[in-house]
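I can't quite decide. Please look over this sequence plus C-alpha coordinates:

:::
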Amino acid sequence: MKKICIISQYWLPDLNGDVVRLKNCIKVLINLGYEVTLITSLPHYPYGDRKGYKSKPIIIEKGKNIKIIRVYIPPLKHEGLHRRLILYIIFTFTSLFPLFILNKADYVWAFSQRVFSSISGIIFKIFHKSKLISDITDLWPEALVNTGYTKYNSTFYKIGRFLAKIIYLLSDKVTVLTYSMKDFIAKEYKIEPKKIEILPNIAKKYDCKENVSKDKLRIVYSGNLGKNYDLISIIEVAKILRNEKIEFIIRGQGEMYSILSKLIKENNLKNVKIENKPLPYKEYLKEMCNSDIFILPLKSSMFPDASFPIKFVEYLGFGKPMLIISKGYLAKFSKEKNVGFVFEEANHQEIASLLIKISKEKNSLKEFKLRNIKVLNEYFSENKLKEILKSIFN
Protein backbone atom coordinates (compact mmCIF):
# COMPACT_ATOMS: atom_id res chain seq x y z
CA MET A 1 0.00 0.00 0.00
CA LYS A 2 1.49 3.33 -1.06
CA LYS A 3 1.76 6.01 1.62
CA ILE A 4 0.91 9.67 1.08
CA CYS A 5 1.75 12.42 3.56
CA ILE A 6 -0.38 15.52 3.03
CA ILE A 7 0.57 18.90 4.48
CA SER A 8 -2.31 21.37 4.76
CA GLN A 9 -2.79 24.29 7.13
CA TYR A 10 -6.57 23.84 6.98
CA TRP A 11 -8.78 20.91 7.96
CA LEU A 12 -12.08 20.23 9.66
CA PRO A 13 -13.67 21.59 11.82
CA ASP A 14 -12.38 24.70 10.02
CA LEU A 15 -14.13 25.05 6.69
CA ASN A 16 -13.07 26.86 3.53
CA GLY A 17 -12.38 26.05 -0.10
CA ASP A 18 -9.08 24.32 0.76
CA VAL A 19 -10.82 21.99 3.20
CA VAL A 20 -13.59 21.06 0.75
CA ARG A 21 -11.00 20.27 -1.94
CA LEU A 22 -8.82 18.29 0.46
CA LYS A 23 -11.77 16.34 1.87
CA ASN A 24 -12.77 15.23 -1.64
CA CYS A 25 -9.20 14.22 -2.52
CA ILE A 26 -8.64 12.25 0.70
CA LYS A 27 -11.91 10.37 0.19
CA VAL A 28 -10.82 9.31 -3.32
CA LEU A 29 -7.27 8.41 -2.23
CA ILE A 30 -8.55 6.16 0.60
CA ASN A 31 -11.00 4.49 -1.79
CA LEU A 32 -8.08 3.87 -4.17
CA GLY A 33 -6.24 2.05 -1.36
CA TYR A 34 -3.66 4.63 -0.32
CA GLU A 35 -2.61 5.09 3.30
CA VAL A 36 -2.94 8.78 4.16
CA THR A 37 -1.28 10.84 6.88
CA LEU A 38 -2.44 14.44 7.19
CA ILE A 39 -0.30 17.06 8.90
CA THR A 40 -2.51 20.02 9.69
CA SER A 41 -2.94 22.75 12.27
CA LEU A 42 -5.17 23.28 15.26
CA PRO A 43 -8.49 24.91 14.31
CA HIS A 44 -8.10 28.66 13.80
CA TYR A 45 -9.99 29.74 10.65
CA PRO A 46 -11.31 32.40 10.20
CA TYR A 47 -11.52 34.08 13.64
CA GLY A 48 -8.93 32.19 15.69
CA ASP A 49 -11.54 29.95 17.36
CA ARG A 50 -10.06 26.70 18.71
CA LYS A 51 -13.47 24.96 18.40
CA GLY A 52 -12.93 22.90 21.54
CA TYR A 53 -9.27 21.92 20.94
CA LYS A 54 -6.54 22.63 23.49
CA SER A 55 -3.37 24.45 22.47
CA LYS A 56 -0.78 21.66 22.31
CA PRO A 57 2.37 21.27 20.19
CA ILE A 58 1.07 18.01 18.65
CA ILE A 59 -2.26 16.16 18.75
CA ILE A 60 -2.60 12.79 16.96
CA GLU A 61 -5.98 11.53 15.76
CA LYS A 62 -6.48 8.14 14.10
CA GLY A 63 -9.24 7.20 11.69
CA LYS A 64 -9.84 4.45 9.16
CA ASN A 65 -6.87 4.49 6.73
CA ILE A 66 -5.94 8.01 7.86
CA LYS A 67 -3.81 9.49 10.62
CA ILE A 68 -4.25 13.18 11.42
CA ILE A 69 -1.43 15.03 13.15
CA ARG A 70 -2.39 18.51 14.34
CA VAL A 71 0.40 20.97 15.14
CA TYR A 72 0.35 24.28 16.93
CA ILE A 73 -0.72 27.53 15.28
CA PRO A 74 -1.66 30.73 17.12
CA PRO A 75 -5.38 31.60 17.42
CA LEU A 76 -5.17 34.70 15.22
CA LYS A 77 -7.87 36.10 12.96
CA HIS A 78 -7.38 35.53 9.24
CA GLU A 79 -7.45 39.24 8.58
CA GLY A 80 -4.92 41.40 6.76
CA LEU A 81 -1.69 40.33 5.10
CA HIS A 82 0.48 40.56 8.23
CA ARG A 83 -1.67 38.21 10.31
CA ARG A 84 -1.92 35.78 7.42
CA LEU A 85 1.84 35.76 6.92
CA ILE A 86 2.39 35.10 10.63
CA LEU A 87 0.03 32.11 10.43
CA TYR A 88 1.61 30.76 7.22
CA ILE A 89 5.18 31.10 8.50
CA ILE A 90 4.43 29.53 11.91
CA PHE A 91 2.67 26.59 10.26
CA THR A 92 5.64 26.13 7.92
CA PHE A 93 7.79 25.70 11.03
CA THR A 94 5.42 23.65 13.24
CA SER A 95 4.43 21.32 10.36
CA LEU A 96 8.00 20.01 10.58
CA PHE A 97 7.43 18.73 14.17
CA PRO A 98 6.26 15.27 12.94
CA LEU A 99 9.26 14.90 10.61
CA PHE A 100 11.13 12.51 12.91
CA ILE A 101 8.15 10.45 14.11
CA LEU A 102 6.66 9.64 10.72
CA ASN A 103 7.47 6.59 8.67
CA LYS A 104 8.73 7.28 5.16
CA ALA A 105 5.97 8.24 2.72
CA ASP A 106 6.11 7.55 -1.00
CA TYR A 107 4.64 10.97 -1.75
CA VAL A 108 4.46 14.28 0.06
CA TRP A 109 1.57 16.42 -1.12
CA ALA A 110 1.88 20.06 -0.12
CA PHE A 111 -1.81 20.76 -0.21
CA SER A 112 -2.49 24.42 0.25
CA GLN A 113 -2.99 27.34 -2.04
CA ARG A 114 -0.14 29.13 -0.34
CA VAL A 115 3.41 28.31 -1.30
CA PHE A 116 4.39 27.93 2.37
CA SER A 117 3.19 24.30 2.69
CA SER A 118 5.51 23.44 -0.19
CA ILE A 119 8.48 24.83 1.75
CA SER A 120 7.77 22.22 4.44
CA GLY A 121 7.20 19.70 1.66
CA ILE A 122 10.68 20.27 0.24
CA ILE A 123 12.24 19.41 3.63
CA PHE A 124 10.08 16.26 3.89
CA LYS A 125 11.09 15.34 0.35
CA ILE A 126 14.81 15.60 1.16
CA PHE A 127 14.57 13.87 4.54
CA HIS A 128 12.30 10.99 3.44
CA LYS A 129 13.48 10.83 -0.19
CA SER A 130 9.84 11.14 -1.25
CA LYS A 131 8.32 12.62 -4.36
CA LEU A 132 6.87 16.10 -3.82
CA ILE A 133 3.60 17.29 -5.33
CA SER A 134 2.58 20.92 -4.84
CA ASP A 135 -1.10 21.82 -5.08
CA ILE A 136 -1.58 25.39 -6.31
CA THR A 137 -5.15 26.67 -6.25
CA ASP A 138 -4.17 30.34 -6.15
CA LEU A 139 -1.14 31.59 -8.05
CA TRP A 140 1.06 33.43 -5.56
CA PRO A 141 2.15 36.21 -5.56
CA GLU A 142 -0.15 37.09 -8.48
CA ALA A 143 -3.27 36.54 -6.35
CA LEU A 144 -1.88 38.99 -3.78
CA VAL A 145 -1.78 41.69 -6.45
CA ASN A 146 -5.42 40.96 -7.29
CA THR A 147 -6.52 41.42 -3.66
CA GLY A 148 -4.45 44.58 -3.19
CA TYR A 149 -2.15 43.08 -0.54
CA THR A 150 0.92 43.90 -2.64
CA LYS A 151 1.80 45.81 -5.78
CA TYR A 152 3.00 44.41 -9.06
CA ASN A 153 6.83 44.40 -9.23
CA SER A 154 7.20 45.49 -5.59
CA THR A 155 9.99 43.94 -3.51
CA PHE A 156 7.47 41.67 -1.79
CA TYR A 157 6.08 40.58 -5.17
CA LYS A 158 9.57 39.76 -6.46
CA ILE A 159 10.37 37.71 -3.34
CA GLY A 160 7.09 35.84 -3.86
CA ARG A 161 7.98 35.12 -7.50
CA PHE A 162 11.39 33.82 -6.43
CA LEU A 163 9.84 31.46 -3.84
CA ALA A 164 7.21 30.25 -6.31
CA LYS A 165 9.91 29.54 -8.93
CA ILE A 166 11.91 27.42 -6.45
CA ILE A 167 8.82 25.45 -5.46
CA TYR A 168 7.79 24.78 -9.06
CA LEU A 169 11.33 23.64 -9.89
CA LEU A 170 11.77 21.36 -6.86
CA SER A 171 8.33 19.78 -7.06
CA ASP A 172 8.04 16.51 -8.96
CA LYS A 173 4.51 17.47 -9.95
CA VAL A 174 2.40 20.62 -9.66
CA THR A 175 -1.39 20.37 -9.53
CA VAL A 176 -3.53 23.34 -10.60
CA LEU A 177 -7.21 24.03 -11.26
CA THR A 178 -7.35 25.13 -14.89
CA TYR A 179 -5.53 25.04 -18.22
CA SER A 180 -5.02 28.79 -18.00
CA MET A 181 -3.16 28.39 -14.68
CA LYS A 182 -1.03 25.64 -16.20
CA ASP A 183 -0.18 27.81 -19.22
CA PHE A 184 0.68 30.76 -16.96
CA ILE A 185 3.12 28.76 -14.82
CA ALA A 186 4.70 27.11 -17.86
CA LYS A 187 5.19 30.42 -19.67
CA GLU A 188 5.98 32.85 -16.83
CA TYR A 189 8.10 30.51 -14.70
CA LYS A 190 9.63 28.42 -17.53
CA ILE A 191 8.33 25.12 -16.10
CA GLU A 192 7.89 22.01 -18.27
CA PRO A 193 4.15 21.71 -19.09
CA LYS A 194 4.22 17.91 -18.63
CA LYS A 195 5.13 18.52 -14.97
CA ILE A 196 1.83 20.36 -14.38
CA GLU A 197 -1.44 18.45 -13.95
CA ILE A 198 -4.98 19.82 -14.06
CA LEU A 199 -6.77 18.67 -10.90
CA PRO A 200 -10.22 20.33 -10.80
CA ASN A 201 -12.37 20.96 -7.78
CA ILE A 202 -15.44 18.77 -7.62
CA ALA A 203 -18.94 18.93 -6.18
CA LYS A 204 -21.92 16.64 -6.01
CA LYS A 205 -25.36 17.06 -7.48
CA TYR A 206 -28.11 18.20 -5.14
CA ASP A 207 -31.71 17.22 -5.80
CA CYS A 208 -33.53 20.48 -5.23
CA LYS A 209 -37.30 20.36 -5.18
CA GLU A 210 -39.09 23.11 -7.07
CA ASN A 211 -40.14 25.13 -4.03
CA VAL A 212 -38.72 28.56 -4.82
CA SER A 213 -40.81 31.63 -4.09
CA LYS A 214 -43.10 32.77 -6.89
CA ASP A 215 -43.28 36.27 -5.45
CA LYS A 216 -39.57 36.94 -5.00
CA LEU A 217 -36.42 36.64 -7.07
CA ARG A 218 -33.77 35.44 -4.61
CA ILE A 219 -30.12 36.08 -5.54
CA VAL A 220 -27.62 34.38 -3.22
CA TYR A 221 -23.91 34.72 -2.54
CA SER A 222 -22.57 32.01 -0.23
CA GLY A 223 -18.89 31.71 0.62
CA ASN A 224 -15.82 33.61 1.75
CA LEU A 225 -16.38 37.34 2.30
CA GLY A 226 -12.87 38.18 1.14
CA LYS A 227 -11.26 41.04 -0.74
CA ASN A 228 -10.90 39.07 -3.96
CA TYR A 229 -14.69 39.20 -4.43
CA ASP A 230 -16.49 42.31 -5.66
CA LEU A 231 -19.15 42.11 -2.97
CA ILE A 232 -19.67 45.88 -3.02
CA SER A 233 -21.28 45.45 -6.45
CA ILE A 234 -24.09 43.45 -4.81
CA ILE A 235 -24.80 46.45 -2.60
CA GLU A 236 -24.67 48.85 -5.57
CA VAL A 237 -27.15 46.79 -7.59
CA ALA A 238 -29.44 46.48 -4.57
CA LYS A 239 -29.34 50.28 -4.16
CA ILE A 240 -30.52 50.73 -7.76
CA LEU A 241 -33.35 48.23 -7.37
CA ARG A 242 -34.56 48.93 -3.83
CA ASN A 243 -37.17 46.34 -4.65
CA GLU A 244 -38.05 43.87 -1.93
CA LYS A 245 -39.35 41.46 -4.54
CA ILE A 246 -35.75 41.13 -5.76
CA GLU A 247 -33.89 39.96 -2.66
CA PHE A 248 -30.14 39.58 -2.16
CA ILE A 249 -28.74 37.20 0.46
CA ILE A 250 -25.06 37.33 1.39
CA ARG A 251 -23.88 34.47 3.58
CA GLY A 252 -20.35 33.78 4.75
CA GLN A 253 -17.43 34.77 6.95
CA GLY A 254 -14.48 37.02 6.28
CA GLU A 255 -13.01 40.48 6.58
CA MET A 256 -15.61 42.14 4.33
CA TYR A 257 -18.49 41.26 6.67
CA SER A 258 -18.29 44.42 8.80
CA ILE A 259 -17.95 46.68 5.73
CA LEU A 260 -20.95 45.12 3.99
CA SER A 261 -23.06 45.23 7.17
CA LYS A 262 -22.28 48.92 7.57
CA LEU A 263 -23.22 49.72 3.96
CA ILE A 264 -26.52 47.83 4.25
CA LYS A 265 -27.41 49.75 7.39
CA GLU A 266 -26.27 53.16 6.09
CA ASN A 267 -28.29 52.77 2.88
CA ASN A 268 -31.30 51.28 4.68
CA LEU A 269 -31.41 48.37 2.23
CA LYS A 270 -34.44 46.23 3.02
CA ASN A 271 -33.72 43.98 0.03
CA VAL A 272 -30.35 42.72 1.31
CA LYS A 273 -29.79 40.22 4.11
CA ILE A 274 -26.34 39.37 5.42
CA GLU A 275 -25.53 36.40 7.67
CA ASN A 276 -22.18 35.23 9.04
CA LYS A 277 -23.26 32.31 11.23
CA PRO A 278 -22.77 28.88 9.63
CA LEU A 279 -26.03 27.03 9.04
CA PRO A 280 -26.54 23.35 9.89
CA TYR A 281 -25.99 21.35 6.72
CA LYS A 282 -29.67 20.54 6.10
CA GLU A 283 -30.68 24.19 6.55
CA TYR A 284 -27.87 25.30 4.25
CA LEU A 285 -29.09 22.93 1.51
CA LYS A 286 -32.66 24.13 1.95
CA GLU A 287 -31.61 27.78 1.68
CA MET A 288 -29.52 27.12 -1.42
CA CYS A 289 -32.30 25.12 -3.07
CA ASN A 290 -34.76 27.93 -2.36
CA SER A 291 -32.58 30.35 -4.36
CA ASP A 292 -33.24 31.45 -7.94
CA ILE A 293 -29.79 32.72 -8.96
CA PHE A 294 -26.31 32.44 -7.46
CA ILE A 295 -24.06 35.46 -7.81
CA LEU A 296 -20.30 35.14 -8.26
CA PRO A 297 -18.69 38.60 -8.45
CA LEU A 298 -14.91 38.69 -8.86
CA LYS A 299 -12.94 41.90 -8.69
CA SER A 300 -11.44 43.23 -11.88
CA SER A 301 -7.75 42.33 -11.58
CA MET A 302 -4.38 42.25 -13.25
CA PHE A 303 -4.25 38.43 -13.15
CA PRO A 304 -7.84 37.20 -13.69
CA ASP A 305 -6.69 33.59 -14.06
CA ALA A 306 -4.70 33.47 -10.82
CA SER A 307 -7.50 31.44 -9.25
CA PHE A 308 -10.72 29.62 -10.06
CA PRO A 309 -13.37 29.85 -7.32
CA ILE A 310 -14.58 26.57 -5.85
CA LYS A 311 -18.01 28.08 -5.34
CA PHE A 312 -18.49 28.07 -9.12
CA VAL A 313 -18.33 24.27 -9.00
CA GLU A 314 -20.53 24.06 -5.90
CA TYR A 315 -23.14 26.31 -7.49
CA LEU A 316 -23.30 24.02 -10.54
CA GLY A 317 -24.40 21.16 -8.30
CA PHE A 318 -27.66 22.91 -7.46
CA GLY A 319 -28.64 23.30 -11.12
CA LYS A 320 -29.27 27.03 -10.75
CA PRO A 321 -28.08 29.77 -13.12
CA MET A 322 -25.23 32.02 -12.05
CA LEU A 323 -24.74 35.74 -12.38
CA ILE A 324 -20.99 36.03 -12.93
CA ILE A 325 -18.86 39.17 -12.90
CA SER A 326 -15.44 38.13 -14.14
CA LYS A 327 -12.86 38.21 -16.90
CA GLY A 328 -10.45 35.57 -18.15
CA TYR A 329 -10.93 31.81 -18.06
CA LEU A 330 -13.97 31.81 -15.76
CA ALA A 331 -15.88 34.20 -18.02
CA LYS A 332 -14.85 32.28 -21.16
CA PHE A 333 -15.80 28.88 -19.75
CA SER A 334 -19.12 30.17 -18.37
CA LYS A 335 -20.07 31.69 -21.72
CA GLU A 336 -19.09 28.56 -23.66
CA LYS A 337 -21.13 26.31 -21.39
CA ASN A 338 -23.96 28.83 -20.98
CA VAL A 339 -24.29 28.28 -17.22
CA GLY A 340 -25.73 31.71 -16.48
CA PHE A 341 -25.34 35.42 -17.14
CA VAL A 342 -21.79 36.76 -17.58
CA PHE A 343 -20.62 40.37 -17.18
CA GLU A 344 -16.93 41.09 -17.78
CA GLU A 345 -17.37 44.50 -16.15
CA ALA A 346 -19.46 45.34 -13.08
CA ASN A 347 -22.06 47.47 -14.87
CA HIS A 348 -24.53 47.88 -12.02
CA GLN A 349 -27.29 49.43 -14.10
CA GLU A 350 -27.17 46.68 -16.71
CA ILE A 351 -27.20 43.99 -14.02
CA ALA A 352 -30.17 45.64 -12.31
CA SER A 353 -32.08 45.82 -15.62
CA LEU A 354 -31.37 42.15 -16.29
CA LEU A 355 -32.68 41.14 -12.86
CA ILE A 356 -35.89 43.13 -13.38
CA LYS A 357 -36.40 41.32 -16.67
CA ILE A 358 -35.70 37.89 -15.11
CA SER A 359 -38.08 38.59 -12.22
CA LYS A 360 -40.88 38.86 -14.78
CA GLU A 361 -39.84 35.69 -16.61
CA LYS A 362 -38.77 33.33 -13.81
CA ASN A 363 -39.80 30.21 -15.71
CA SER A 364 -36.92 30.83 -18.13
CA LEU A 365 -34.47 29.91 -15.34
CA LYS A 366 -35.54 26.25 -15.43
CA GLU A 367 -33.61 25.69 -18.66
CA PHE A 368 -30.31 25.89 -16.75
CA LYS A 369 -30.97 22.92 -14.48
CA LEU A 370 -30.07 20.00 -16.76
CA ARG A 371 -27.37 21.98 -18.58
CA ASN A 372 -25.48 22.96 -15.42
CA ILE A 373 -25.66 19.45 -13.96
CA LYS A 374 -24.29 18.12 -17.26
CA VAL A 375 -21.32 20.53 -17.05
CA LEU A 376 -20.73 19.40 -13.46
CA ASN A 377 -20.69 15.71 -14.43
CA GLU A 378 -18.42 16.27 -17.42
CA TYR A 379 -15.76 18.48 -15.83
CA PHE A 380 -16.09 18.43 -12.03
CA SER A 381 -17.20 14.95 -10.97
CA GLU A 382 -15.69 12.48 -8.50
CA ASN A 383 -14.96 10.09 -11.36
CA LYS A 384 -12.91 12.81 -13.07
CA LEU A 385 -10.97 13.43 -9.84
CA LYS A 386 -10.37 9.69 -9.35
CA GLU A 387 -9.04 9.30 -12.88
CA ILE A 388 -6.55 12.16 -12.48
CA LEU A 389 -5.36 11.15 -8.99
CA LYS A 390 -4.68 7.63 -10.26
CA SER A 391 -2.50 9.11 -12.97
CA ILE A 392 -0.62 11.46 -10.61
CA PHE A 393 0.19 8.90 -7.93
CA ASN A 394 1.22 6.16 -10.32
